[in-house]
Every structure is written in structure tokens, then in C-alpha cells.
UniProtKB/TrEMBL annotation:
<dbReference type="GO" id="GO:0004830">
    <property type="term" value="F:tryptophan-tRNA ligase activity"/>
</dbReference>
<keyword id="KW-0436">Ligase</keyword>
<dbReference type="InterPro" id="IPR024109">
    <property type="entry name" value="Trp-tRNA-ligase_bac-type"/>
</dbReference>
<keyword id="KW-0648">Protein biosynthesis</keyword>
<dbReference type="InterPro" id="IPR001412">
    <property type="entry name" value="aa-tRNA-synth_I_CS"/>
</dbReference>
<dbReference type="Pfam" id="PF00579">
    <property type="entry name" value="tRNA-synt_1b"/>
</dbReference>
<dbReference type="GO" id="GO:0009791">
    <property type="term" value="P:post-embryonic development"/>
</dbReference>
<comment type="similarity">
    <text>Belongs to the class-I aminoacyl-tRNA synthetase family.</text>
</comment>
<dbReference type="GO" id="GO:0006436">
    <property type="term" value="P:tryptophanyl-tRNA aminoacylation"/>
</dbReference>
<keyword id="KW-0547">Nucleotide-binding</keyword>
<dbReference type="GO" id="GO:0009507">
    <property type="term" value="C:chloroplast"/>
</dbReference>
<protein>
    <recommendedName>
        <fullName>tryptophan--tRNA ligase</fullName>
        <ecNumber>6.1.1.2</ecNumber>
    </recommendedName>
</protein>
<dbReference type="GO" id="GO:0005739">
    <property type="term" value="C:mitochondrion"/>
</dbReference>
<dbReference type="InterPro" id="IPR002306">
    <property type="entry name" value="Trp-tRNA-ligase"/>
</dbReference>
<dbReference type="GO" id="GO:0005524">
    <property type="term" value="F:ATP binding"/>
</dbReference>
<dbReference type="InterPro" id="IPR050203">
    <property type="entry name" value="Trp-tRNA_synthetase"/>
</dbReference>
<keyword id="KW-0067">ATP-binding</keyword>
């Protein structure tokens, strides 16, 4: 998420039913996902094939990922995470949630959170997330997330949390006197989000690697303190309580940078809206942002020059929304001026985002249908999460009803 993006990958079986709606399945309005774009975003050090080699063909990998409803979903959220989900949901057991509990770690507006939560869910579906293939739910609708967080917090040394880089940065900006406890304990809730679903792999951005390490350490700590023979003596199955997840780091191409600073990630929290393309931006806003975006004075356009971060970022965006390969973009754009390239990029962005915007309006016009998707998704997610939670309660010695 910066902290606005939480991406998690899990492996398990699922036979839960899915909610179906013709309004949410109209294929003509979903943008085509090109294989070149997907490969660029998802070619990772831990390959999917290597993970599944020893698994029966009937076992599907479980993938869990989410975005905070703290502002409009922008191009970085979409190209860095959501666009990948469309491919993953066809092969895996996918759970995609709206991370609303994480959205209150800093001062927020309650009416805005309510609206943004529903908007985010609608955008998931508008981007192509299919509720007949994926479970879509709101984090706060599954109480196990908070319950497990409390149990994990009892085993989390305060020193671990004090070392979190994002806590230091956020608390310094907000002023130590104004920082709530939730900002400090945020990584424990993230660990709960992950461990509830017994993951094998967790795809995380560079800014979330430290939080995943905390999750791994917590899983190992709980397993050591309460698992194995100790758990079996209490009537449990024994063995580890949690599976210790492995990281899956997206390549650099999945990290979309700011339009005003090619060295900073595109972010909802950036003070200037000029720094990002929001998925619901109208055509004139997109054109204006691209026209005014930061570039350089060098001739020609090129990828991967560390001295030209803005050039690399804009070319990468064009590659991903056009569906072209890196080589195709290089050949097309290497001799272009910025004056020629910016209209090309603008047209590609508008063409790619327009179907999403049309579909979003359709989904928002059928609020009851969206509510049913979220209710069904929360029920399916709770079935998995509660099974893990009951094991943890048992292993930690709680008397159950």
C-alpha cells in the first residue's frame, strides 16, 4: 500500500459457491488483458511453476490481495496489482478484499471511508475481477482479521514494531503526539490478514518487504510457542499452526511512479492530484495531467536509463496500457519528441480506461447487486478465516464454546 496497497498470495483448496450476476459479467466492457503486459508485471524470482511442481493438479493456489479505500484507485494500483488479478483468477482460488481497517491508522473522514469502500469494490469488478471466479469482500466484514490480530499482538515484541520504517516515517510526518496506536500495530493486522488464509506465497512491493518479514517471524514464533506437541496435548492436530509464507516480489515494471517525480511511487497520499492518473479521471483531466507531467530536455526516448526516471516511467505506462512489448515500444518511440509522445500516451490511457469507467457506472447503478457480491464474499472468506482462528484459539489455551 505504500501502505495503500496490500498484496497477498495464498495456496489452499476452496469449493465455496460464487455469486453470479449478468450485470457483473458483461465481457464486452472489460479491457483486453494482453499477455505481454501480464508477463512484464508478474515474472518473479519465485515462479508459479516451481511452486506448484509438487502439488496435485486438483490443488489451486489461493491468492489474496487488497487495496485501501483511502482515495481514488489510481493507475499504480491498477497496473501494479489489480490488472494482474484478472489473469490470476482464471487459474487460482482468489480472494480480493477492500482493506478498510488499514484506512483508519491515520486521521480520516468517516463519510468518505464509507463511500470510498463501495467505490473501490465497484472498481475491482469494473477492472475485470469476476465474482464467479474470485471472492470479493470488505476486510471489516470478516471479524477474524481483528480477532487474530489481538492474539498475534500478545506474542509480538514491541521492539519489532518500533523498527518498522513506515511507522517512523508516518509518525514523524504526523507528529509523535498525534499518532494513534493503530499506526504502530498496523503490521500486526497485516500479519493477521495474511496468516488467516495459510499462504504459501505473498506478493509484496518493495515498501512492504519489511512487514512480510514481520509476518514470517510471527508465524514462526507462534508455531514455536504453541504448535507441535503442545497443541496436540490440547486436542489439536499438532504440527505448525501457521504456514510460513514466502515473498513474491513484482519486477520493477509493476512499480508505477509519480507523474511529477520519477523517483517516487504513484501514491494516493501525495498532496497533488497532478502526480497520479486516477482510474475515474475524465478524458480532459488525463490529457491535462500528461501534458503537464515532468519530463526532461534530452532528445529521443529510452527505457532503463537511471538518469531519466520520468522517461522510463512514461514509456512503461504506455507499454502496459497499449499491450505492446518493450521492444515494440522502443522501436516506435525511440526517435520521438515529448511533443509527439504525450498525445500518443494520452490516447492510449483514455482508450484503456474508458471501458473501466463505463462499467463502473453500470455497477454503481445496481447497488443491491454489489452488496450481494460483498456479502457472499464475506461469508466465503469467513469460512476459511474462522477455521484458522479456531485453531489458534485452541493452541493458545482458550476455552471454546
Amino acid at each position: 500500500m505504500g501502505r495503500s496497497l496490500l498484496s497477498q498470495l495464498f495456496i489452499l483448496n476452496s469449493t465455496a459457491p460464487r455469486f453470479s450476476s449478468s450485470v457483473l459479467r458483461r465481457p464486452g466492457l472489460i479491457p483486453q488483458i494482453h499477455s505481454q503486459s501480464f508477463q512484464c508485471l508478474c515474472s518473479t524470482p519465485i515462479s508459479e511453476s516451481s511452486v506448484s511442481e509438487n502439488l496435485p493438479s486438483s490443488v489451486k493456489k489461493r491468492i489474496v490481495s487488497g487495496v485501501q479505500p483511502t482515495g481514488s484507485i489510481h493507475l499504480g494500483n491498477y497496473l501494479g496489482a489489480i490488472k494482474n488479478w484478472i489473469q490470476l483468477q482464471d487459474k487460482h482460488d482468489t480472494f480480493f478484499f477492500i482493506v478498510d481497517l488499514h484506512a483508519i491508522t491515520l486521521p480520516y473522514d468517516a463519510p468518505h471511508l464509507l463511500k470510498a469502500t463501495k467505490d473501490t469494490a465497484a472498481l475491482y469488478l469494473a477492472c475485470g475481477v469476476d465474482p464467479t471466479k474470485a471472492t470479493v469482500f470488505v476486510q471489516s466484514h470478516v471479524a477474524a482479521h481483528v480477532e487474530l490480530m489481538w492474539l498475534l499482538s500478545a506474542a509480538t515484541p514491541i521492539g519489532w514494531l518500533n523498527k518498522m520504517i513506515q511507522f517512523k516515517e508516518k509518525s514523524r510526518k504526523a507528529g509523535d503526539e498525534n499518532v494513534g496506536v493503530a499506526l504502530l500495530t498496523y503490521p500486526v493486522l497485516m500479519a493477521s490478514d495474511i496468516l488467516l488464509y495459510q499462504p504459501d506465497l505473498v506478493p509484496v512491493g518493495e515498501d512492504q518487504k519489511q512487514h512480510l518479514e514481520l509476518t514470517r517471524e510471527l508465524a514462526e514464533r507462534i508455531n514455536y510457542l504453541y504448535g507441535g506437541k503442545k497443541w496436540k496435548k490440547l486436542g489439536g492436530r499438532g504440527g505448525p499452526i501457521f504456514k510460513v509464507p514466502e515473498p513474491l516480489i513484482p519486477p520493477a515494471g509493476a512499480r508505477i511512479m509519480s507523474l511529477t517525480d520519477g523517483l517516487s511511487k504513484m501514491s494516493k497520499s501525495a498532496p497533488s492530484d497532478q502526480s497520479r492518473i486516477n482510474l475515474l479521471d475524465p478524458k480532459d483531466a488525463i490529457a491535462n495531467k500528461i501534458k503537464r507531467c515532468k519530463t526532461d530536455s534530452l532528445s529521443g526516448l529510452e527505457f532503463d536509463n537511471p538518469d531519466r526516471p520520468e522517461c522510463n516511467n512514461l514509456l512503461s505506462i504506455y507499454q502496459l496500457v497499449s499491450g505492446k512489448t518493450k521492444q515494440e515500444v522502443t522501436e516506435e518511440c525511440q526517435n520521438m519528441s515529448w511533443g509527439a509522445f504525450k498525445p500518443l500516451l494520452t490516447d492510449a490511457l483514455i482508450a484503456h480506461l474508458h471501458p473501466i469507467q463505463v462499467r463502473y457506472e453500470e455497477i454503481m447503478s445496481d447497488s443491491d447487486c454489489l452488496d450481494k457480491v460483498l456479502a457472499e464474499g464475506a461469508m466465503n472468506a469467513a469460512n476459511v478465516a474462522n477455521a484458522t482462528l479456531q485453531n489458534v484459539y485452541q493452541a493458545m489455551g482458550f476455552m471454546r464454546r
